[in-house]
Specification:
The protein has 425 residues and is of the alpha/beta class. It has two domains: 89 residues, Urease, subunit C, domain 1 (Roll); 305 residues, TIM Barrel (Alpha-Beta Barrel). The protein is built from 14 helices and 15 strands. A seven-stranded parallel β-sheet has the order 6-7-8-9-10-11-12, with helices on both faces. Strands 3-2-1-4 form a four-stranded mixed β-sheet, with no helix packed on it. A four-stranded antiparallel β-sheet has the order 5-13-14-15, with no helix packed on it. Helix 5 runs parallel beside helix 6 and helix 6 runs parallel beside helix 7. The termini are far apart. 50% of the residues are buried. It binds fe (ii) ion.
Length: 425
Protein backbone atom coordinates (compact mmCIF):
# COMPACT_ATOMS: atom_id res chain seq x y z
CA UNK A 1 0.00 0.00 0.00
CA UNK A 2 1.46 3.31 -1.15
CA UNK A 3 0.49 6.84 -0.13
CA UNK A 4 0.56 7.90 -3.78
CA UNK A 5 1.18 6.29 -7.17
CA UNK A 6 2.04 8.30 -10.28
CA UNK A 7 0.96 5.91 -13.01
CA UNK A 8 2.31 5.39 -16.50
CA UNK A 9 4.40 8.55 -16.92
CA UNK A 10 7.38 8.91 -19.27
CA UNK A 11 10.61 9.56 -17.38
CA UNK A 12 13.27 11.92 -18.82
CA UNK A 13 15.39 8.90 -19.89
CA UNK A 14 12.48 7.56 -21.97
CA UNK A 15 11.37 4.74 -19.66
CA UNK A 16 7.65 4.42 -18.95
CA UNK A 17 7.09 3.49 -15.32
CA UNK A 18 4.82 3.84 -12.30
CA UNK A 19 6.28 5.65 -9.30
CA UNK A 20 5.21 4.49 -5.84
CA UNK A 21 5.55 6.93 -2.95
CA UNK A 22 5.37 6.24 0.78
CA UNK A 23 6.46 8.32 3.76
CA UNK A 24 7.75 11.15 1.57
CA UNK A 25 10.15 8.85 -0.31
CA UNK A 26 10.07 7.08 -3.66
CA UNK A 27 9.70 3.41 -2.75
CA UNK A 28 9.10 1.88 -6.21
CA UNK A 29 9.86 2.72 -9.85
CA UNK A 30 8.32 -0.18 -11.73
CA UNK A 31 5.15 -1.54 -13.31
CA UNK A 32 2.91 -1.55 -10.24
CA UNK A 33 -0.15 -3.21 -11.84
CA UNK A 34 -3.13 -3.15 -9.49
CA UNK A 35 -1.17 -1.92 -6.46
CA UNK A 36 -3.26 0.17 -4.05
CA UNK A 37 -2.57 3.70 -2.92
CA UNK A 38 -4.26 6.52 -1.02
CA UNK A 39 -4.14 8.54 -4.25
CA UNK A 40 -3.42 7.57 -7.86
CA UNK A 41 -2.50 10.13 -10.52
CA UNK A 42 -2.74 8.96 -14.13
CA UNK A 43 0.32 10.41 -15.93
CA UNK A 44 -0.08 8.35 -19.11
CA UNK A 45 1.46 10.30 -21.98
CA UNK A 46 2.93 12.94 -19.66
CA UNK A 47 6.54 13.63 -18.70
CA UNK A 48 7.42 12.88 -15.07
CA UNK A 49 10.61 14.68 -14.06
CA UNK A 50 12.50 15.35 -10.87
CA UNK A 51 11.86 18.97 -9.83
CA UNK A 52 13.51 21.95 -11.45
CA UNK A 53 16.53 23.39 -9.64
CA UNK A 54 17.75 27.01 -9.79
CA UNK A 55 21.33 27.38 -8.49
CA UNK A 56 21.53 31.17 -8.89
CA UNK A 57 18.93 33.64 -7.67
CA UNK A 58 18.53 36.86 -5.65
CA UNK A 59 15.50 36.37 -3.44
CA UNK A 60 16.12 39.52 -1.38
CA UNK A 61 15.60 41.63 -4.53
CA UNK A 62 12.92 39.65 -6.35
CA UNK A 63 9.50 41.18 -7.18
CA UNK A 64 10.81 44.68 -6.38
CA UNK A 65 10.61 45.94 -9.98
CA UNK A 66 10.04 49.71 -10.03
CA UNK A 67 11.10 50.21 -6.39
CA UNK A 68 12.16 52.93 -5.90
CA UNK A 69 12.54 53.48 -9.68
CA UNK A 70 13.23 51.61 -12.91
CA UNK A 71 16.73 50.85 -14.27
CA UNK A 72 16.83 53.40 -17.10
CA UNK A 73 20.09 52.31 -18.76
CA UNK A 74 19.48 48.58 -18.30
CA UNK A 75 23.08 48.05 -17.21
CA UNK A 76 24.51 45.87 -14.43
CA UNK A 77 26.11 48.90 -12.78
CA UNK A 78 22.89 50.98 -12.68
CA UNK A 79 21.15 47.89 -11.30
CA UNK A 80 23.70 47.67 -8.45
CA UNK A 81 23.22 51.39 -7.75
CA UNK A 82 19.43 51.04 -7.82
CA UNK A 83 19.57 48.06 -5.45
CA UNK A 84 21.68 50.23 -3.12
CA UNK A 85 18.83 52.79 -3.06
CA UNK A 86 16.21 50.11 -2.38
CA UNK A 87 18.27 48.61 0.46
CA UNK A 88 18.02 51.91 2.35
CA UNK A 89 14.21 51.87 2.42
CA UNK A 90 13.12 48.20 2.39
CA UNK A 91 11.78 46.51 5.52
CA UNK A 92 12.11 43.00 6.94
CA UNK A 93 8.41 42.20 6.48
CA UNK A 94 8.41 43.46 2.89
CA UNK A 95 11.40 41.26 1.94
CA UNK A 96 9.78 38.21 3.58
CA UNK A 97 6.48 38.89 1.78
CA UNK A 98 8.14 39.30 -1.64
CA UNK A 99 10.27 36.18 -1.13
CA UNK A 100 7.31 34.04 -0.02
CA UNK A 101 5.28 35.21 -3.03
CA UNK A 102 8.16 34.21 -5.26
CA UNK A 103 8.37 30.79 -3.56
CA UNK A 104 4.66 30.28 -4.38
CA UNK A 105 5.40 31.08 -8.02
CA UNK A 106 8.40 28.72 -7.96
CA UNK A 107 6.47 25.84 -6.40
CA UNK A 108 3.72 26.17 -9.02
CA UNK A 109 6.41 25.86 -11.71
CA UNK A 110 7.89 22.70 -10.16
CA UNK A 111 10.96 24.65 -9.01
CA UNK A 112 11.65 23.05 -5.63
CA UNK A 113 15.34 23.81 -4.97
CA UNK A 114 16.79 27.31 -5.12
CA UNK A 115 20.21 28.73 -4.24
CA UNK A 116 19.77 32.43 -3.47
CA UNK A 117 22.48 34.97 -2.89
CA UNK A 118 21.69 37.41 -0.09
CA UNK A 119 23.40 40.78 0.14
CA UNK A 120 25.66 41.10 3.19
CA UNK A 121 26.63 44.75 2.54
CA UNK A 122 24.20 46.09 5.13
CA UNK A 123 25.13 46.66 8.76
CA UNK A 124 21.60 45.62 9.80
CA UNK A 125 21.81 42.36 7.77
CA UNK A 126 18.12 42.91 7.07
CA UNK A 127 18.03 40.70 3.96
CA UNK A 128 19.97 37.95 5.74
CA UNK A 129 17.54 37.91 8.68
CA UNK A 130 14.55 37.94 6.31
CA UNK A 131 15.75 35.10 4.08
CA UNK A 132 16.81 32.95 7.04
CA UNK A 133 13.18 33.24 8.16
CA UNK A 134 11.95 32.39 4.65
CA UNK A 135 14.32 29.39 4.42
CA UNK A 136 12.64 27.99 7.51
CA UNK A 137 9.09 28.84 6.38
CA UNK A 138 9.42 27.05 3.00
CA UNK A 139 11.50 24.06 4.12
CA UNK A 140 8.66 21.56 3.69
CA UNK A 141 8.45 22.24 -0.06
CA UNK A 142 11.53 24.18 -1.23
CA UNK A 143 15.20 23.46 -0.50
CA UNK A 144 16.52 27.00 -0.12
CA UNK A 145 20.29 27.50 0.13
CA UNK A 146 21.60 30.96 1.00
CA UNK A 147 24.90 32.45 -0.21
CA UNK A 148 26.55 35.28 1.77
CA UNK A 149 27.05 37.78 -1.05
CA UNK A 150 29.04 41.00 -0.51
CA UNK A 151 27.29 42.84 -3.37
CA UNK A 152 29.29 46.08 -2.99
CA UNK A 153 32.65 44.29 -2.80
CA UNK A 154 34.24 42.24 0.00
CA UNK A 155 37.09 44.79 0.25
CA UNK A 156 35.52 47.73 -1.61
CA UNK A 157 32.73 48.15 0.97
CA UNK A 158 34.28 49.06 4.34
CA UNK A 159 32.10 46.76 6.49
CA UNK A 160 31.42 43.96 3.97
CA UNK A 161 34.11 41.64 5.33
CA UNK A 162 32.82 41.77 8.90
CA UNK A 163 29.17 41.56 7.82
CA UNK A 164 29.79 38.58 5.51
CA UNK A 165 31.37 36.69 8.39
CA UNK A 166 28.47 37.73 10.69
CA UNK A 167 26.02 36.36 8.09
CA UNK A 168 27.85 33.00 8.03
CA UNK A 169 27.79 32.94 11.84
CA UNK A 170 23.99 33.40 11.68
CA UNK A 171 23.61 30.29 9.54
CA UNK A 172 23.95 31.40 5.91
CA UNK A 173 25.04 28.26 4.06
CA UNK A 174 27.57 29.26 1.40
CA UNK A 175 30.41 31.76 0.86
CA UNK A 176 29.93 34.20 -2.04
CA UNK A 177 31.97 36.97 -3.62
CA UNK A 178 32.15 39.46 -6.47
CA UNK A 179 35.83 39.81 -7.41
CA UNK A 180 35.21 41.76 -10.64
CA UNK A 181 33.54 44.54 -8.61
CA UNK A 182 36.56 45.10 -6.35
CA UNK A 183 38.62 48.20 -7.16
CA UNK A 184 41.54 46.39 -8.80
CA UNK A 185 42.26 43.00 -10.36
CA UNK A 186 44.67 42.36 -7.45
CA UNK A 187 41.96 43.11 -4.86
CA UNK A 188 39.59 40.82 -6.75
CA UNK A 189 42.10 37.96 -6.72
CA UNK A 190 42.84 38.54 -3.01
CA UNK A 191 39.10 38.44 -2.24
CA UNK A 192 38.78 35.07 -4.00
CA UNK A 193 41.67 33.69 -1.95
CA UNK A 194 40.39 34.93 1.42
CA UNK A 195 36.79 33.89 0.78
CA UNK A 196 37.87 30.38 -0.29
CA UNK A 197 40.00 30.13 2.88
CA UNK A 198 36.97 31.14 4.99
CA UNK A 199 34.93 28.40 3.30
CA UNK A 200 37.67 25.78 3.77
CA UNK A 201 38.02 26.55 7.50
CA UNK A 202 34.24 26.41 8.01
CA UNK A 203 33.64 23.38 5.77
CA UNK A 204 31.31 25.36 3.48
CA UNK A 205 30.70 25.54 -0.26
CA UNK A 206 31.71 28.55 -2.37
CA UNK A 207 29.65 30.26 -5.09
CA UNK A 208 31.03 33.46 -6.60
CA UNK A 209 29.76 35.94 -9.13
CA UNK A 210 32.88 35.68 -11.24
CA UNK A 211 34.03 37.72 -14.23
CA UNK A 212 30.53 39.10 -14.88
CA UNK A 213 31.98 41.59 -17.37
CA UNK A 214 32.89 41.88 -21.05
CA UNK A 215 36.57 42.27 -20.09
CA UNK A 216 38.65 39.68 -22.01
CA UNK A 217 41.46 40.07 -19.45
CA UNK A 218 39.37 39.26 -16.37
CA UNK A 219 41.06 36.31 -14.66
CA UNK A 220 39.08 35.59 -11.48
CA UNK A 221 37.77 32.19 -12.59
CA UNK A 222 41.40 31.10 -12.99
CA UNK A 223 42.12 32.20 -9.41
CA UNK A 224 38.92 30.53 -8.17
CA UNK A 225 39.82 27.20 -9.81
CA UNK A 226 43.40 27.41 -8.54
CA UNK A 227 42.31 28.18 -4.95
CA UNK A 228 39.78 25.33 -5.17
CA UNK A 229 42.62 22.90 -5.86
CA UNK A 230 45.02 24.45 -3.32
CA UNK A 231 42.45 24.18 -0.52
CA UNK A 232 40.99 20.79 -1.49
CA UNK A 233 37.54 22.21 -2.26
CA UNK A 234 37.00 20.15 -5.43
CA UNK A 235 33.31 19.69 -6.27
CA UNK A 236 32.20 22.26 -3.65
CA UNK A 237 32.80 25.44 -5.64
CA UNK A 238 30.71 27.19 -8.29
CA UNK A 239 31.60 29.99 -10.67
CA UNK A 240 28.52 31.99 -11.59
CA UNK A 241 28.22 33.91 -14.88
CA UNK A 242 31.82 33.73 -16.29
CA UNK A 243 30.62 36.08 -19.05
CA UNK A 244 34.08 37.49 -19.76
CA UNK A 245 35.01 34.05 -21.13
CA UNK A 246 32.88 35.00 -24.14
CA UNK A 247 35.52 37.64 -25.00
CA UNK A 248 38.70 35.87 -23.88
CA UNK A 249 41.54 34.88 -26.18
CA UNK A 250 41.04 31.34 -27.51
CA UNK A 251 44.55 30.16 -26.59
CA UNK A 252 44.07 31.31 -23.00
CA UNK A 253 40.71 29.54 -22.81
CA UNK A 254 42.36 26.33 -24.05
CA UNK A 255 44.48 26.44 -20.85
CA UNK A 256 41.67 27.63 -18.60
CA UNK A 257 39.04 24.98 -19.30
CA UNK A 258 41.20 22.00 -18.25
CA UNK A 259 42.00 23.86 -15.01
CA UNK A 260 38.26 24.35 -14.28
CA UNK A 261 37.65 20.66 -15.10
CA UNK A 262 40.50 19.43 -12.84
CA UNK A 263 39.24 21.60 -9.98
CA UNK A 264 35.70 20.23 -10.49
CA UNK A 265 34.33 23.77 -10.37
CA UNK A 266 30.63 23.85 -11.25
CA UNK A 267 29.56 26.57 -13.69
CA UNK A 268 26.34 28.58 -13.67
CA UNK A 269 25.59 30.77 -16.71
CA UNK A 270 22.42 32.86 -16.38
CA UNK A 271 21.23 33.29 -19.97
CA UNK A 272 18.19 35.56 -19.44
CA UNK A 273 20.37 38.05 -17.60
CA UNK A 274 23.64 37.62 -19.50
CA UNK A 275 21.97 38.32 -22.87
CA UNK A 276 20.36 41.46 -21.42
CA UNK A 277 23.26 42.91 -19.40
CA UNK A 278 26.38 42.06 -21.42
CA UNK A 279 27.60 43.87 -24.52
CA UNK A 280 25.86 47.07 -23.40
CA UNK A 281 28.92 49.15 -24.31
CA UNK A 282 29.28 47.56 -27.75
CA UNK A 283 28.08 49.09 -31.00
CA UNK A 284 28.13 46.37 -33.68
CA UNK A 285 29.00 43.56 -33.81
CA UNK A 286 27.39 43.32 -30.35
CA UNK A 287 28.60 40.50 -28.09
CA UNK A 288 26.10 38.09 -26.55
CA UNK A 289 28.10 37.71 -23.33
CA UNK A 290 27.07 34.14 -22.58
CA UNK A 291 30.01 31.99 -21.44
CA UNK A 292 31.36 29.04 -23.49
CA UNK A 293 28.76 26.46 -22.50
CA UNK A 294 29.21 23.76 -25.15
CA UNK A 295 32.99 23.92 -24.86
CA UNK A 296 32.86 23.44 -21.08
CA UNK A 297 30.38 20.57 -21.34
CA UNK A 298 32.74 18.92 -23.85
CA UNK A 299 35.51 19.11 -21.20
CA UNK A 300 33.30 17.27 -18.70
CA UNK A 301 32.62 20.40 -16.61
CA UNK A 302 29.25 20.42 -14.81
CA UNK A 303 27.32 23.38 -16.28
CA UNK A 304 23.72 24.26 -15.37
CA UNK A 305 21.49 27.19 -16.30
CA UNK A 306 20.59 29.64 -13.52
CA UNK A 307 17.83 32.24 -13.44
CA UNK A 308 19.45 35.06 -11.40
CA UNK A 309 16.61 37.60 -11.43
CA UNK A 310 12.83 37.99 -11.65
CA UNK A 311 11.29 41.49 -11.64
CA UNK A 312 14.13 43.27 -9.86
CA UNK A 313 16.66 46.11 -10.46
CA UNK A 314 18.48 44.04 -13.11
CA UNK A 315 15.67 42.30 -14.99
CA UNK A 316 12.15 43.50 -15.73
CA UNK A 317 10.58 40.13 -16.64
CA UNK A 318 10.61 36.52 -15.40
CA UNK A 319 8.17 33.91 -14.09
CA UNK A 320 10.19 31.41 -12.00
CA UNK A 321 10.04 29.04 -14.98
CA UNK A 322 13.33 27.17 -15.42
CA UNK A 323 12.11 25.98 -18.84
CA UNK A 324 12.13 29.64 -19.93
CA UNK A 325 15.71 29.89 -18.65
CA UNK A 326 16.79 26.76 -20.50
CA UNK A 327 14.92 27.89 -23.63
CA UNK A 328 16.89 31.15 -23.73
CA UNK A 329 20.15 29.32 -22.99
CA UNK A 330 19.49 26.82 -25.77
CA UNK A 331 19.07 29.66 -28.27
CA UNK A 332 21.97 31.88 -27.22
CA UNK A 333 24.42 28.96 -26.88
CA UNK A 334 23.10 27.53 -30.17
CA UNK A 335 22.48 24.12 -28.54
CA UNK A 336 19.98 23.00 -31.17
CA UNK A 337 20.87 19.37 -31.95
CA UNK A 338 18.53 16.81 -30.34
CA UNK A 339 21.31 15.73 -27.96
CA UNK A 340 22.13 19.34 -27.00
CA UNK A 341 18.47 20.26 -26.42
CA UNK A 342 18.15 17.21 -24.20
CA UNK A 343 21.20 18.35 -22.21
CA UNK A 344 19.56 21.77 -21.74
CA UNK A 345 16.72 20.03 -19.87
CA UNK A 346 19.25 18.13 -17.71
CA UNK A 347 21.01 21.43 -17.00
CA UNK A 348 17.96 22.76 -15.10
CA UNK A 349 17.42 19.46 -13.28
CA UNK A 350 20.26 17.00 -12.62
CA UNK A 351 23.22 19.27 -13.42
CA UNK A 352 21.95 21.98 -11.05
CA UNK A 353 21.17 19.40 -8.37
CA UNK A 354 24.82 18.33 -8.56
CA UNK A 355 25.99 21.95 -8.21
CA UNK A 356 23.77 22.42 -5.14
CA UNK A 357 24.87 19.07 -3.70
CA UNK A 358 21.25 18.01 -3.14
CA UNK A 359 20.96 14.71 -1.29
CA UNK A 360 18.30 12.21 -2.36
CA UNK A 361 17.50 14.04 -5.64
CA UNK A 362 16.11 12.11 -8.59
CA UNK A 363 13.57 9.49 -9.62
CA UNK A 364 15.05 6.39 -7.99
CA UNK A 365 14.05 4.22 -5.06
CA UNK A 366 15.12 5.99 -1.86
CA UNK A 367 15.02 9.47 -3.39
CA UNK A 368 12.96 12.24 -1.88
CA UNK A 369 9.45 12.05 -3.42
CA UNK A 370 9.57 15.46 -5.08
CA UNK A 371 8.65 15.50 -8.76
CA UNK A 372 6.74 17.34 -11.43
CA UNK A 373 4.29 16.05 -14.04
CA UNK A 374 4.39 18.04 -17.27
CA UNK A 375 1.96 18.30 -20.18
CA UNK A 376 4.61 17.06 -22.64
CA UNK A 377 5.75 13.67 -23.88
CA UNK A 378 9.49 14.19 -23.48
CA UNK A 379 12.09 16.76 -22.32
CA UNK A 380 12.55 18.47 -25.71
CA UNK A 381 8.80 18.90 -26.09
CA UNK A 382 8.66 20.31 -22.56
CA UNK A 383 11.26 22.88 -23.61
CA UNK A 384 9.49 23.75 -26.86
CA UNK A 385 6.15 24.27 -25.13
CA UNK A 386 7.46 25.49 -21.75
CA UNK A 387 4.90 22.87 -20.82
CA UNK A 388 2.22 23.25 -18.17
CA UNK A 389 3.12 21.77 -14.77
CA UNK A 390 0.02 19.62 -14.25
CA UNK A 391 1.00 18.35 -10.79
CA UNK A 392 3.85 19.34 -8.50
CA UNK A 393 4.66 16.90 -5.70
CA UNK A 394 6.94 17.87 -2.80
CA UNK A 395 8.02 15.32 -0.19
CA UNK A 396 5.18 13.00 -1.26
CA UNK A 397 2.41 15.63 -1.18
CA UNK A 398 0.67 17.28 -4.15
CA UNK A 399 1.29 20.99 -3.56
CA UNK A 400 0.19 22.52 -6.88
CA UNK A 401 -2.07 21.58 -9.78
CA UNK A 402 -2.64 23.42 -13.06
CA UNK A 403 -5.36 22.35 -15.52
CA UNK A 404 -4.22 20.96 -18.86
CA UNK A 405 -4.68 23.82 -21.36
CA UNK A 406 -7.25 23.19 -24.07
CA UNK A 407 -7.67 25.66 -26.89
CA UNK A 408 -11.12 26.07 -28.41
CA UNK A 409 -11.12 27.91 -31.70
CA UNK A 410 -14.21 30.04 -32.15
CA UNK A 411 -15.22 32.35 -34.95
CA UNK A 412 -14.96 35.25 -32.51
CA UNK A 413 -11.21 34.65 -32.33
CA UNK A 414 -10.72 35.46 -36.00
CA UNK A 415 -10.20 38.97 -37.40
CA UNK A 416 -13.46 40.61 -38.49
CA UNK A 417 -12.51 40.53 -42.19
CA UNK A 418 -11.99 36.77 -42.09
CA UNK A 419 -15.20 36.30 -40.15
CA UNK A 420 -17.16 38.31 -42.72
CA UNK A 421 -15.75 36.20 -45.56
CA UNK A 422 -16.63 33.03 -43.67
CA UNK A 423 -20.17 34.21 -42.98
CA UNK A 424 -20.67 35.16 -46.66
CA UNK A 425 -19.92 31.58 -47.75
FE1 LIG B 1 23.52 37.08 -9.51
Amino acid sequence: MFDLIVKGGSLPDGRVADIGIKGGKITAVDQLGEAQAGQIIDATGDLVSPPFVDPHFHMDATLSYGLPRINASGTLLEGIGLWGELKQVMTHDEVVERALSYCDWAASMGLLAIRSHVDTCDDRLLGVEALLEVRDKVKDYIDLQLVAFPQDGFYRDPTARANTIRALDKGVDIVGGIPHFERTMADGAASVTELCEIAAVRGLQVDMHCDETDDPLSRHIETLANETQRLGLQGRVAGSHLTSMHSMDNYYVSKLLPLIAEAEVNVIPNPLINIVLQGRHDTFPKRRGLTRVKEMLAQGINVGWGQDCVLDPWYSLGTADMLDVAFMGLHVAQMTSPQEMRICFDMVTTHNAKTMGLPDYGLHVGAKASLVILDAGAPIEALRLRATRLHVIANGKVISQTPRPEATLTLAARPASVRRRHEAD
